[in-house]
């Protein structure tokens, strides 16, 4: 009997060792890409389509091309529930597995990871969210936030409002309301707004919405009814967006004067009913599935049952947002392979790959995404691109692009960003000076 | 001096200058308050019967609303879906009694409280597994709930009352009144109060604890469904509704954990108080004060009545 137990124990040890060895061998031939997602919790309405877009593009590359440069991607989701604390836990959990990049998908989590990234040699991609000042690659060599910062987005909205009023100078003495999630994300553009309010002369009214009051915003919208702002800018996420739109309808705030940053999805607006028609939001990429790369996603991932997405949601705005994020990840990995000549790249290589991103129209066409977004070029100094956006309008059924590209107020924003980056480095004593190699100085 | 003026004079000047906005704010506060009262009622029912603070009440609101909309989405007619959802809440009540409460009889209250944490996470998981995490729209019109608003001119301005809010206030009031009568006048209600006073004494006179628990959990489930429909119609049906459940805490602190009238009065005070506070005094500190103001109001009341407005005064021999 004793020998039997010994044999079983020995077999178990051998089996475990074999599995460990196989996993190790596999890990050596894979590129590990963790995805911080939130399919649960109060923000899952926004998190799910993004998580699906993120996953499906990378999964398509695995299925169609066998990965990137012949190396399969090991895609692993970590659930954060859009909780910064859980986001940091996810980061600590994945760190030991040598991720080549992390995507926090939360400004709060990003702010916590910024000091860790350079120490752990893991690049952080906070695509169009996070700390606006981290666009400065000289101060933040490990942080990337293309293609727009929140400050760019906010200034683009002001630029658009200025166009409606016949010039930015005509915003003087206008009243602009700002409805925002009272968290890191919503607070991010306030310094810029306050600065531009003084410079241009508009009256800024702030309407913070605490996270536990996202579904109960009547006070904020009653204040809007009292203050009568000429325009309202919305920075919402999760349940905040549909509730805000319903409240705007309720107080009969002119829908065409309500302009959101790029986060409302179709479901957010749809739930407000037909009266939501006319709501506007910024965007920088296409909506719809009429692209060869998305056709490939359908063929290799969605129809093959390897996606969690509802088929009808492929091509919706937040799905495509997640896709764009994964496009940047894939491009950074491909660049890293080219720069280093290695197949299996690490975080340091991918950081260089991110700094070398050059999505020209030709490259987008090659990737099956012709016309999907504006070209994007990142450099060692500029980790953002500060690209133009456009305004899309809800026509009662879908988002429709209604403007040409609108530039952010670069001349005004750039010095403020530089000064904010400098201030960040000064406030965090011992902030390291950049020593990382630069492959794309221009 | 300016600060004192902003705090003590200016808000009241605003109230006089724009009485229509004052009335609108009071109305919004009353509607919120009635809905807070509904959520608090779910907590009170279970606390009265078992002495347990049911942490799962918030997720029960989400689960009930998701079940209703989920059934409708798969083709069940709205009213039948409503009936079936009531059935699901009954099954849940029986399940909770059999699986959670019965094995924990005579355990310390904290054990039962922790069990409701477990129930919360079980319902979150089950809800996400069955219905997914995407937000859904409440089937307001299919349930024959009114939409649109009643607008009228008043005191030089205008007041706009959402028909849905009027319906919510009416339904919640009827429900609260019905429950009050149920507890005061019916045999089951009296049995429930007996259980609340002493499990052992209630058992000794032949009251079935198991039956009472099923009834209160089922009633709390129906209250959760009503709350889910009303809040869901005002925003959407998503797991974010769970957070609204936490709004019941200051209401309970204020009204007392064992009092049905306390839940109602507490809900109204918190609802009106936080709306007035946010609207008139919020701008002084940059706004967004609603979430802590409710607790502040409750704590001020606690200074004078530690057992809450209507809570039982506990006297223990030592």
TrEMBL record, chain A:
User: Hey, what's the signal peptide range on this chain?
Assistant: 1-27
The UniProt entry, under Pfam families, shows: Peripla_BP_6
The superkingdom of the source organism is Bacteria
Q: Which Gene3D superfamilies match?
A: 3.40.50.2300
What UniProt keywords apply to this chain's record, in alphabetical order? Answer: Signal
Q: Which family does it belong to?
A: Belongs to the leucine-binding protein family.
Quote the protein name from its UniProt record.
Branched-chain amino acid transport system substrate-binding protein
Q: Which organism is it from?
A: Pseudochelatococcus contaminans
Automatic annotation (TrEMBL), chain B:
Q: Which residues cross the membrane?
A: 29-47, 59-90, 110-131, 166-183, 212-231, 251-272, 279-304
Q: Where in the cell is it found?
A: Cell membrane
Any one Gene Ontology molecular-function term assigned to this protein's record: transmembrane transporter activity
The question of whether Endoplasmic reticulum is a record keyword is answered with no
Where is this chain primarily localised? membrane
Q: Where is the signal peptide?
A: none
Q: A cellular component term (GO) from this record? A: plasma membrane
Q: Which GO terms describe its biological process?
A: amino acid transport
**Its membrane topology:** Multi-pass membrane protein
Organism's domain of life? Bacteria
Which keywords fit this entry according to its UniProt record? Amino-acid transport, Cell membrane, Membrane, Transmembrane, Transmembrane helix, Transport
Q: Name one Pfam family in it.
A: BPD_transp_2
Task: Give the CDD domains listed for this entry.
Answer: TM_PBP1_LivH_like
Q: Do you know which InterPro entries this protein is assigned to? A: ABC_transp_permease, BCAA_transport_permease
Q: Which family does it belong to?
A: Belongs to the binding-protein-dependent transport system permease family. LivHM subfamily.
List the protein's name. Answer: Branched-chain amino acid transport system permease protein
Q: Which organism is it from?
A: Pseudochelatococcus contaminans
């Amino acid at each position: 009997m004793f020998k039997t137990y010994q044999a079983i124990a020995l077999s178990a040890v051998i089996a475990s060792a074999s599995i460990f060895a196989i996993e190790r061998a596999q890990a050596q031939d894979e590129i590990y890409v963790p995805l911080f997602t939130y399919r649960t919790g109060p923000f899952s309405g926004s998190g799910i389509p993004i998580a699906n877009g993120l996953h499906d593009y990378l999964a398509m590359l695995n299925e169609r091309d066998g990965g990137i440069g012949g190396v399969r991607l090991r895609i692993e989701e970590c659930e954060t529930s859009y909780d910064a604390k859980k986001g940091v836990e996810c980061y600590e959990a994945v760190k030991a597995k040598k991720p080549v990049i992390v995507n926090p998908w939360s400004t709060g989590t990003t702010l916590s990871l910024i000091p860790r990234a350079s120490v752990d040699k893991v690049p952080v991609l906070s695509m169009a969210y996070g700390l606006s000042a981290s666009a400065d690659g000289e101060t933040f060599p490990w942080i990337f936030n293309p293609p727009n910062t929140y400050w760019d987005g906010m200034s683009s909205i002001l630029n658009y409002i200025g166009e409606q009023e016949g010039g930015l100078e005509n915003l003087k003495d206008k009243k602009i309301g700002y409805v925002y999630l009272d968290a890191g994300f919503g607070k991010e553009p306030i310094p810029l707004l306050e600065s531009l309010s003084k410079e241009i002369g508009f009256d800024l009214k702030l309407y913070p919405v605490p996270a536990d009051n996202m579904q109960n915003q009547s006070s904020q919208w009653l204040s809007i009814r009292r203050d009568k702002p000429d325009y309202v800018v919305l920075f919402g996420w999760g349940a905040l967006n549909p509730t805000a739109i319903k409240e705007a309808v309720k107080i009969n705030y002119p829908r065409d004067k309500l302009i959101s940053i790029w986060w409302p999805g179709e479901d957010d607006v749809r739930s407000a009913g037909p009266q939501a028609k006319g709501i506007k939001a910024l965007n920088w990429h296409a909506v719809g599935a009429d692209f060869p790369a998305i056709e490939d996603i359908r063929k290799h991932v969605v129809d093959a049952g390897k996606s969690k997405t509802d088929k009808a949601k492929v091509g919706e705005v937040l799905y495509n947002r997640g896709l764009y994020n994964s496009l940047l990840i894939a491009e950074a990995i491909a660049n890293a392979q080219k720069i280093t000549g290695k197949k299996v790249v690490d975080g340091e290589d991918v950081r260089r790959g991110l700094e070398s991103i050059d999505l020209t129209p030709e490259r987008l066409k090659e990737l099956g995404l012709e016309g999907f977004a504006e070209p994007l070029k990142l450099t060692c100094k500029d980790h953002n691109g500060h690209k133009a956006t456009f305004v899309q309008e809800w026509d009662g059924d879908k988002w429709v692009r209604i403007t040409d590209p609108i530039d952010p107020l670069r001349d005004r924003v750039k010095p403020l960003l530089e000064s904010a980056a400098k201030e960040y480095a000064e406030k965090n004593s011992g902030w390291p000076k950049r020593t990382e190699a630069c492959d794309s100085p221009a | 001096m300016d600060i004192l003026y902003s705090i003590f004079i200016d808000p009241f000047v605003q109230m006089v200058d724009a009485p229509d906005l004052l009335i609108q704010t009071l109305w919004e506060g009353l509607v919120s308050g009635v809905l807070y009262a509904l959520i608090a009622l779910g907590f009170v029912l279970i606390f009265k019967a078992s002495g347990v603070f049911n942490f799962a009440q918030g997720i029960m609101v989400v689960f009930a609303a998701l079940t209703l909309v989920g059934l409708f989405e798969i083709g069940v007619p709205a009213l039948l879906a409503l009936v079936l959802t009531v059935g699901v809440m009954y099954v849940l009540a029986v399940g909770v009694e059999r699986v959670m409460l019965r094995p924990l009889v005579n355990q310390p209250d904290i054990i039962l409280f922790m069990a409701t944490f477990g129930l919360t996470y079980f319902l979150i998981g089950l809800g996400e597994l069955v219905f997914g995490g995407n937000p859904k729209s409440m089937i307001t019109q299919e349930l024959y709930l009114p939409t649109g608003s009643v607008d009228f001119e008043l005191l030089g301005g205008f007041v706009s009352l959402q028909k849905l809010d009027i319906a919510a206030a009416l339904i919640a009031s009827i429900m609260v009144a019905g429950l009050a009568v149920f507890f005061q006048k019916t045999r089951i209600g009296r049995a429930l109060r007996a259980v609340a006073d002493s499990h052992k004494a209630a058992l000794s006179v032949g009251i079935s604890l198991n039956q009472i628990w099923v009834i209160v959990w089922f009633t709390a489930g129906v209250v959760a469904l009503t709350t889910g429909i009303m809040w869901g119609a005002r925003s959407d049906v998503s797991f974010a509704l769970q957070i609204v459940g936490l709004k019941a805490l200051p209401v309970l602190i204020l009204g007392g954990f064992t009092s049905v009238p306390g839940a109602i009065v507490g809900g109204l005070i918190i609802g009106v108080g936080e709306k007035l506070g946010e609207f008139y005094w919020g701008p002084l500190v940059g706004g967004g004060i609603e979430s802590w103001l409710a607790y502040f109001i409750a704590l001020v009341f606690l200074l004078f009545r530690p057992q809450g407005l209507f809570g039982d005064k506990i006297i223990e021999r030592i």
